[in-house]
Amino acid sequence: MSAGRRPADTEKRLPTPSRNSTVTGIPYQQQLSAPYGRTCGAAALAMVYASLGLPDCQKAVWSQIAGEDKDVRRTTGSFRLARHALDRGLSAAVLQAARPWDTLASCWFTGARVILNHRLRPDSPLGHFSVLAGFDDDEVFVHDPQFGPFRRLTRDRLLRLWLPSAGGSEIVGHVLVAIASRDDQPNRCDSCGAMVPAQVGCGRCGNLVPLRPVAALGCSKRDCGARLWKYVFCPCCDFPTGEVE
Ligand SMILES: [Zn+2]
Ligand SMILES: [Zn+2]
User: Considering the domain boundaries, does residue 25 fall inside one?
Assistant: First the structure.
């Protein structure tokens, strides 16, 4: 976006630190301009890396995740972001949230980073990536690689922007990439006592699909109230998994 122009849903005030916030100091990066095309995914990933003490060049990240369609649409899929973060030695999961607001809260208050795959604007079907940079009772702030740092979105507005528009959209809806420091430890659900495995096998390609960071998923049992997700997506082939044995 050009300097001085603000999207309609951004207010001028910046967020005050939430009382219980644990994710702080995510440095903002604007996405690259032409000829790199749509680099919001790479910008979001570079912001997350920097916040975890892993500085990286957005241009290099983009060239690594752009994929086969580099010369056509110059976009990237959520699973490619997770694949890249896993290759950097982090925990990363792509999931469709069953209770999106609760998922954001769980990640925020445990320090897991979140890259949201939402639509660019309320009137646009285009997919876009932003980084969760502030969370409060009824609003969030996202570092939007196109629109600027601390883009304020009310809860209702975010949840609508995070769903496909009528008539088709590039996004699936309520999909996010959760990223945190590496954690492969066994984890027991506080609610039902079941063990939450660190990963499951992909039903299509057989590669491992991470179920970490656990804060983003809660439990893996379908009937447990602590479960926060509908599907996790394979970081290699994008295939969805809904059941964990
Ligand atoms: Zn459980
Ligand atoms: Zn797969």
Answer: no
Number of neighbouring beta carbons within 10 Å of residue 68: 6
The structural domain count of the chain equals 1
pTM of the full structure = 0.88
Rounded distance from Cα 236 to ligand 2 centre (Å): 5
226: domain range? 40-240
Distance 209 CA to ligand 2 centre (A): 7
User: Residue 124's domain is classified under what CATH number?
Assistant: 3.90.70.10
- Write out pLDDT tens, residues 131-163: 999 999 899 999 999 999 999 999 999 999 999
pLDDT at 172 over 50: yes
Residue 148 is assigned to a structural domain of this protein? yes
How many A from CA of 193 to the centre of ligand 1? 6
CA of 51 to the centre of ligand 2 (A): 28
Tell me which residue of 218, 178, 183 sits closest to 81, measured CA to CA. 178
217 C-alpha vs ligand 1 centroid, how far in Å?
10
Q: Which ligand is nearest to the CA of 234?
A: 2
Query: How do residues 226-245 score in pLDDT, each as one tens digit?
Result: 999 999 999 999 999 999 87
Whether residue 192 is contained in a domain is answered as yes
Residue 63 backbone phi and psi in degrees, to 5? -65, -25
